[in-house]
Amino acid sequence: METVYDWVTVAIFAGLVVLFLQRSTGDEPPRDSMLHYLMASAGCAVANYFGNKAVAGGGIVYHLIAVAVILGTLAFVHVVLRPLDKPRR
């Protein structure tokens, strides 16, 4: 946990874990697949990789790739996993 990218990607991953645990203990059948969580967590790993390369002296291109992957991962979580949807009653 040395770079900003480490903290950001771990925070996103922790949110994914909480969302998964919340939905797996609910009364309703799950509306999302394990593959969705796998893709989102892979996005965190890829963003962290490029971010750490950027901090190690890789250049601005690696920063841009890392930020783009982080934003893409957050967009994927928002659109596919829909963490802000209210449960049906």
From TrEMBL:
It comes from the Bacteria. Keywords: Membrane, Transmembrane, Transmembrane helix. The chain crosses the membrane at residues 60-81. InterPro entries: XrtV-like. NCBIfam families: exo_Victor_syst (NF045607). This is Uncharacterized protein. It comes from Rhizorhabdus histidinilytica.
